[in-house]
Every structure is written in structure tokens, then in C-alpha cells.
Amino acid sequence: MIDFGFSVNPSSRINLDAADGEKFHRLAALEPDALKCMACGSCSASCSAAAFEDTSLRRALLSLQNGLSDDAAKLLSHCMLCGKCTMVCPRGINTRHLILSILKIYSL
Amino acid sequence: MKNNILVIGGGPAGMEASAALSRMGYNVILAEKEKSLGGHLAKWDRLFPDQIPAKQVLDSLLEGIKDVKCFTETDVNSINLLDRSYNAMLSNGITILADAVLLASGFDLFKAEKKEEYGYGIYEGVLTNADLEKAFKEGKTFSPAPMAIGFVHCVGSRDEKAGNPACSKVCCATAVKQAIETKELYPDANVYCFYMDLRMFGRHYEDLYLRAQKSGIRFIRGRVSEVSETADGRLLVKAEDTLSSKPLKVSLDRLVLMAGMRPSKAGRAVGHQLNLTTEEDGFFSSADNLLSIQRSKLPGFFYAGACTGPKTLPDTLHEARSAAMEIDRYIKENFRK
Amino acid sequence: MISLITNTVHQITPEGIIDRYPNSYNHFVLPFVIGMTFILVYLLIGLIRILYHLSGEDRLKLLKSLINPKTAWKNIKDIFCDCLLHTKIWKRKPLLGYMHSAIAFGWFLLIIVGHIEVGLFAPRHLSGLTEGSLYYPIFYRFFIWMNPAHETLRGSVFFFLMDLILLYILSGIGLAMFKRVRSIALGMRHTTKPSLADRVALYCLWLIFPLRLLAEGFTADLSGGGFLTRPLNWVFRAFFGNELNFLPTWWAYSICLGLFFLAMPFSRYMHILTEPLLILFRNAGLKVRKPRKGFAEAEIYACSSCGLCLDACPMNTQKKNLKYSSVYFIRFLRRRNKKKVNEIADKCLMCGKCYALCPVGVNSPAIRRAIRETHNNSIKSDYSFMDTYAGSAENSDKKNKILYFAGCMSHLTPVIIKSVETLLKASGEDYEFMDRDKGICCGRPLMLAGRTDAARQTIQANTKIINDSGCSILLVSCPICLKIFKEEYSLKGIEVLHYTQLADRLIKDGKLKVSKSSSAIVYHDPCELGRGCGIYEEPRNVLKAVAELKKASKEKDESICCGYSLGTITLDEKDKAKIAESSVSSLMAENPDEIVTSCPLCYRAIRSKAEVPVKDFAEIICENIEKQ
User: Fold this and answer.
1) What CATH code is assigned to C386-505?
2) Would you give per-residue pLDDT tens digits along chain B (337 residues)?
3) Distance between CA B305 and CA B106 in Å, rounded?
4) In this structure, is the dihedral angle defined by the CA atoms of residues B8, B14, B20 and B23, taken in order, positive or negative?
5) 20 to 30 A from C528, CA-CA: which of B74, B136, C234, C464?
6) Helices then strands (H, E): number in chain B?
7) Is it the case that residue C246 has pLDDT exceeding 90?
8) Overall fold of domain C513-623
9) pLDDT band at C529 (very low <50, low <70, confident <90, very high)
10) Structure ipTM
């Protein structure tokens, strides 16, 4: 490539056109609860791992839908599967299976 | 001869419908299980959005039913459909043959202790919307004056675990109203509202929201996930501030749980005897949800108010009046030919 | 073996018995010989395969256990009680136990007594080198002629014994046939659907013994017989005349035996031969390491497909979920149906009831975990935060006696934490809270999900914190934590106690004084506490001291899971709720005023469905502490 003496910064804007919809469909087929989140934040608030590191299933799902799958995998990499989020989720999402499925489909 | 109409439930819906039916010339019998009429309205202090005293509304409703036969502390022991009338036996020993029945059994408040993680009944500082309203009504204040108070929206609403996936419709506005009133009582306290979505849909509700913001109330978009006790006996509340994407904790002196609406137990008992169907949320199913909300699947059996799902007070009163009109039409079509 | 047919001389023993067939052979024995040879070869290969897949360490363990007289004695006892007498089934369902022992123990006796009889009266046929040693004792009555004039008491005893044993077996077979038609009469609500091989083997098994009776009946005038076969012979002769054509029944008998042995490896009846091996492995202390090989293979073939786990499984409240029961899991595993196996492995609640009630003791939860391990253990985690975390002990300079670990779940039930603290304070015990503000998960949920390596990391981190605390007792309020602390942690000199155990001890030591209320309560046994750690009595001791204790319809090791177990991966909310309902309805059997449990998950699940108040174990004790 020709060096123009400058580089283009990656945009911080979410580009939905570039989001990988196919993988998310696969996830939703494996665990339909992936579509049920209403972003209340209960999971992140109760999360045992979130007391130490940035961990949030809510944001991971949002990142996936926005095409930022690396962010999602990072947000779940500290998860200890303790199941508190399953207990508090008002939508009854099977969070543990969802997390395992995300980690498998979008492994870093 | 005047047709007998039985109204079950003496809350706002039952009272307003009775008043309308009695004005139309029917012989109305109102059965209420509690000692006095008024339902939840009688236990409330002030009402959103204008903060008018609940007593004022209750008094004018009572004014309307002066000519109605009211039986308080009366349950419906049994009810069944005869040829085309209903035979009801009340717990006070009276049997009524009614040409139409209006069920206005309203709602029960969600039992807040069922959300174990909020510690209602375990921590003294945790109370419900009804507890706070009672305190307002009785003029009781907390002492020492609380430094920080939180309101939790959607307790037992929009919650599949609590068996109620639906929105209870009134809690947002109630929480904002109570937050404003609390702030007025304790101007130095920090007041927080933990909400999932703020549903301020009615006329002047948004004004109420703005007023709350202006008075310094903090709105945090996140559902409270657990409550524990700090070493000095305060409440440690955890939630996620979803707008800044960070878990959050805050120490509070009082936490008010906005308990949502569940179908009334007494109403369901009546419905059970007549095999009336309920929807998945436990509230009665109307003949259809658009044109005939007041009608049930049984001829001559009608609904008004929160027995068919959460309603605001104005909604309930409208429904009561329209139920009265439906009943009038039904009687005229079936009994006066 | 059957080729050594020479001109053998008829030997007349003192009992007056002679070989009717000089070469001790007839073509009808062929089906049996083929079947028997096949099964013996199959077994040998299978055994070598299983032993080959055991790790070296496990093989050594097994060898040591076989030499050790204590385990050897236990092996004999277990094989006798479990494989032959079926004492486990007797204890729960006597009629079903009788059926199993009649067939198993009866058949065993028939073989043993039959061989003794041959040994006494025609001993040369038992020697491996002579003709017919494989089949001769089985068809003994066909090959001999007995001189009625010389019948001795010893001979009559055997005739009587053999017929008695046959009758014993036939009564079992009769019950088995009846069970196929009406299983509920024998105490089973659900039974398994048999596969094709199962059917072949089953019908052969049903026919073997009636045919033996017929065959021996036909020859009883020549060979002699007991109280069953002799009268049968008279009847036959009355119908068919004195010249009986007895060969067809002997053919049929041999064919059924041969077919049974041919179908055996592909049917449920393989358990008869595999169960002793499983007992040896289990008593040697081996554990399931691979989901389909080695020990697991022995477990898989030891499953008798009896279907007792269908009634045990908490998922059976919905008929659609019956397919997730252990019996079908094992069947698909045997057929190597990977898709189905994975699906069932992920659904299971891991409550352990099927294992507890399994008459063979097939540890299917362990196999399910091994399956999960194959597809979840490779998931990468980042647990670097654990390296620097040294615990949030509140006063670390003080060496406390009790370290309280509430665990993740107890934080969602403040009543448990508050009551445990009240209880400790009331008994004047010194304690330190390990995870008031935050803490590392115990690792059991990861372990259950098959993420063994990740679990090891949390175990390591917590082990360090606990060992460094200087405590002598680790107190937990969550049975899930308890199980892994007990089984997988190496905590030096530290006793791990559940709060029900501690409360029992405090009351016995007189440190905690409680009074009895008039309330009638029922206790729900959490899976991980009861079946998981065997703690049934301590909570009951304490509860009897504070209230009147009623019984649930299913309790202790038969207790029904609350449905909210962390064991399941894919079970959805609606199915969980259904299980919770069935658990509650079992608890309400004697209409108690209150339900008490001792697990944060059970507490939440049962509260969501119960109409009566639900209390935590520590909460109800706190209500009844005697004021001083």
C-alpha cells in the first residue's frame, strides 16, 4: 500500500451494515432467549464476576447485535457461570446456556 | 318491575358503575368484602398526576351511590347461572336473583416479599408503595430523617419469575409522584428512582417527570438486583446504571418497592365458580380486547376495571360507565321486549 | 470339545444312571453352543477393551482392590446382594424385587445346583477336555437314563431341588409378563420402550424356562424328575401315548437359549454380565473420566434399562420430558447417537435421584458431566483477576474460628445471610464473613457445566484465601458450594460445614437454646445437600426441636428437585416452574403450615409456587431462639 503519511482512524460509530447477522441467527437458533433481553441490567448488577472485571451479558448481547463480537466475548470471558443472572432475569432468560453458546460461536 | 343488578366489588369501578346503573333506574346491589368501600383508593393519600387527595375522589364516588344497596364485609359464597338470571348467595345470608352481574373485583398488590432479593419483611428500611402511601395518609414521618431514599419500579411487574410478564401501568407515575412527595418532606435527602423504562404516557404525566427532575430526583436506568445490609445497618442497593454501562451500588435509608398489580384473589374465586376464563397473566379474558372489553363469554356477566388487567383510575371510571351502558343495553334487549 | 466322540463305554453309576447317548451329543445342542460361544468371545473382547481404556493409574487401583481382602469381601457381598438378590429393589418395591431375584438368583441356583448334580452323578462331563462340558449340564436330563429301581434319596433331593428352583424362576417370569401388561401393579408408573434386540431377548427369556419345563417333562419318564416334571410326563403320556417325541421341545429350548445369548450384547440383558464388573470398578474407587470408554462403558452396559429412573426423574411431570431420563440417555450413548446424547446431557438437572434409586448404581450424572466436558471444557476464560484477589475478610489480623462463605446465591436471599449471622451471634461464635461484598464462585457451577479446567482455577483461588484465613471451620449456606468444598478442595485441617450441621452441633453443645413452637412444618431436602452430601438427619434433628415435623410424600434420597438446580444447562423457565410445582405438591402431602428448606435456590423456587409460607432453615431457628 502507498504510504500517504497519514492513516484513517477506525470509526467509533456502530455500523449495522457491517454486523454479521448470520452468526447471530445461529446463536438465536441455538438459544432463542438471545432475543428476549430488555436491557434492565439485572444480570450485570448481580454478576459475581462484574465485582472484579467488566462483565455484562446485557452489553454482550448488544455488542453482538451491533457487530462487535470481540467486545462481546471479552465481556463474558470472566464469567464463572454461577447462575445469579439466571435467577434475577425478569424475562426468564436461560443466561448460562446463552453465555456458553456465545462463547462457543464467537470464541476469541 | 325494576331489574336486579349485582355489582361485585366496591372499589372505584364498582361504585361508579353502581351510581350510573342506579341513575338509569335499576335496582343495584353492591357487595364488598372489606369493611368499607373504596378499595385501594381508600388507602391512598394523593393521586397522580395532580396530587389531588384521594379522599376527595372517594367522597364524590360515595355521593353517587347513596341510593344503592351496599353490603360491606360480604363475600359472594356461591353464584350460578340459572335460565337467564344469576343466583348469588352472599355471606351475609342474602340470596339475590340478578338479571345481570358486574364483576369489579379489581386487583391485589403484588406481594413484595416474593422478590426475596429486595429483603421486604427482612430489612426494616424496605417498604412498599402502599406502606409509604399509608404513612403519608397518617402523617407519619421517618425519624431520623432519611438521607437517601430509593424507589424501585416494576416490582412484580414485567417479571416472568414473579409470574407477571405484563406492565402494571400505574407504578411509574406513582413512583414519580411519591418521589416528589418524599423529596418535599425530606428536602435534604437524595432520592433515586430505579426504572427499566419510564412509562409516563398520560396527560400531565410528563410534566410530573419534569417536575421530579427539576426537584433533583436522580433517575437511574437499571433494575435493582439485590439489597444487602451495610455494617451500620443501612441498605446497600446494587443495580446496573445501564446508561453508563457500569454496575452501581448506593447506600440508602429507605427503599420503596413499587408493587405491581395482580388479579384479585376474591375475584378469581367468583370467576372459578362460573368457569370464567383468564388469560396467561391471570386477569379475566374479555369477549374481545377492543370492542367488548366489558363483556365476558357469559350472557349478562360483565367486567369493569382492573379485573381485566392493570388500569389507571380514569380508565377504571370510564370502564365502569361504559359497563353500565352495556348492561342497560343487554337488559333492554333481553328482558323488555 | 464335542469332537472327542469315541466308543465310550456305558457307565452305570451306583445311582443307576447311564448315558443314553454314548457320544453325549445330539444336533439340538448346536444353537445353544453357538450362542454360548458367541457371548463368551464377545465378553472377552469387551473386557479387554474396557481394561485397555482405563488409565494406568486406574488399572493399578483395580488390581490393588482385587487383592485387598477387605474390598474383595465387599465385592463378593455386593455382587451377591446387588446382582443376584437385588436387595436394593426389594427395599423400595418388594414385588419388583421378588421378580428380579426370582429370575436372577433362581437362574444362578439352577446353574450351580445343575452342575453339582452332574458333578455328583456324571462327573466326567464337567472336565473341560471331555465331550459336551459346555452344554452337558444344561441338557443333563436329555442325556441320561435313570433306573427307577435304583433311585436314591440323594437323587430325589436333586430332582426336587431342581424343580423347586424352576418353579421359583417361573413365578418370576410370570410376574415379568404381568408387569409388561400392568406395570403399575409392581409399583412402576412408567416403563421403558424396548428396542428390537430387547424384544428378542425378552421373549426368549420368557420362553427359556417354560420350555425347559416342557422338555424335561417330556423326558421325565427316562431321566427321572421331580414334583413338576413327573406329573407333566404323565399328562403328556396320557395325551400322546407312551412313545413320546421329545426332541422338538429340546430343540426349542436350545434355540431360545442360543437366541438369547446372541441377542444379549445388543439388548438390555447385557447388564446381567456387566454389573459384576461395575461393582468391582466402583469398589476399587474408579471414577468416570471419558464419556464412552473405560469405566463409562462398563456403566453403560450395566444399565438394565429397567426404567426405575423414569419414575425418579423430576422432569417426568411433563410427558414430553420423559425422553431426557437416564435410561434413554444410556441407550443413545450405547448406540453412539451423538446428537441425542448431547441434547439429553445438557437438559439434565443433575439432581442425582436416578443415581440414588438405580438398582445397578449407574452414575449417569457423572457420565453426563463427562459429555459436557467434551464440548465445554475447551472454552477459554480470563480469570487473571483471581491472582491478585486476596479475599475481603473484614478483620484479617484476627484468627477466627469460623469463616462464613455465603456464596453467590445466598446473596439473592438476604434472609439466609441475616439469619445465619443472627444464629452465630446468638451462640457467641467468633466468625468472619468471607464474601460480604464480593467473592469468587466456588466452582461447582463450572464443574457441572463440564468446564473442569475453569473450575480448577476458581478452586485454586478460593483454596488459597481459605487456607490463609486461619479458620478451623468453613461455614457455607449453599449446598452447591458445600459439595465442591468437600469433594474437590484440599483444605488442610479445616472442617467444611453446612449451616444445618453447625446448628445441630451448636444445639447439642448447648451453645444455642431453642424452644418448640406449635407450627407444623415440612422439610425439603435440597439435592446437593441430601443426595449430594448425604446430609438428611442434622437438619431434621434441629427442626424437630423447633416445630412439629411432618413428612413429604417423597423425601430424603427420593426428594423431588425444586427445578432451579444449576445442574441443567438447557432446561427452560417454564419447565423449571412445572418441576417446582410438583416438588411443592409432594411437600404439601400432610398439609403443613410452613415449608422449610436449607438452600437459597430451593428457597426461591419453592416460594414461587407454594401457597403456605416458606422459610429458610436458619430463619425458623432464629424465630425460636430462647431468650435468656
Assistant:
1) 3.40.50
2) 689 999 999 999 999 999 999 999 999 999 999 999 999 999 999 999 999 999 999 999 999 999 899 999 999 999 999 988 999 999 999 999 999 999 999 999 999 999 999 999 999 999 999 999 999 999 999 989 999 999 999 999 999 988 899 999 999 999 999 999 999 999 999 999 999 999 999 999 999 999 999 999 999 999 999 999 988 889 999 999 999 999 999 999 999 999 999 999 999 999 999 999 999 899 999 999 999 999 999 999 999 999 999 999 999 999 999 999 999 999 999 987 6
3) 6
4) positive
5) C464
6) 7, 20
7) no
8) Rossmann fold (3.40.50)
9) very high
10) 0.90
The partner residues of B117 in beta bridges, in order of sequence, read none
Instruction: Report the residue of C383, C411, C446 to disrupt the A interface, i.e. the one with the largest count of A CBs within 10 Å.
Output: C383
Residue C277 grid coordinates: 464388573
Taking contacts as CB-CB distances below 8 angstroms, the residues of chain B near A49 are none
| In chain C, ranges of CATH 3.40.50 domains | 386-505, 513-623
Q: How far is A88 from chain B (nearest CA, A)?
A: 7
Q: Can you list the alpha helix ranges (DSSP code H) found in B81-170?
A: 129-137
Q: Residues near C474 by Cβ (< 8 Å), separated by ≥ 6?
A: C402, C403, C405, C466, C485, C491, C494, C495, C496, C497
Verify cis geometry, omega within 30 degrees of 0, for the bond prior to C445. Answer: no
Domains of chain B: 4-106+264-335 (3.50.50.60), 110-259 (3.50.50.60)
Is residue C430 within 8 A of residue C400, CB to CB? The reply is yes
Cβ pair C413:B229 closer than 8 A: no
On the question of pLDDT at C587 being above 50, the answer is yes
Q: How far apart are CA B159 and CA B164, in angstroms?
A: 5
What is the reported pLDDT for C492? 85
Amino acid at C324: Y
Q: Do A94 and C573 contact (CB within 8 A), yes or no?
A: yes
What residues does B28 pair with on adjacent strands? B5
pLDDT in tens, C273-316: 999 999 999 999 998 888 888 899 999 999 988 888 999 999 99
* Residue range(s) in chain C whose domain bears CATH number 1.10.1060.10: 292-374
Nearest CA in chain B to A92: B160
Q: Which residues of C touch A88 (CB under 8 A)?
A: 412
Grid cell in block for residue C435: 464474601
Q: What is the three-class DSSP state of C18?
A: strand
Nearest CA to C143 among C239, C225, C24? C24
Question: Which amino acid is residue B35, in one-letter code?
Answer: K
Q: Which amino acid is at C493?
A: G
Q: What is the DSSP string of C507-529?
A: HHTTSS-B---S-EEEEE--TTT
Domain C292-374 CATH superfamily: Alpha-helical ferredoxin (1.10.1060.10)
Nearest to A38 among B196, B224, B238 (CB): B196
Listed by start position, the domains of chain A span: 41-108
Neighbours of A66 (CB within 10 A): 16
Helices (H), C54-152: 56-67, 69-78, 87-92, 94-121, 140-143
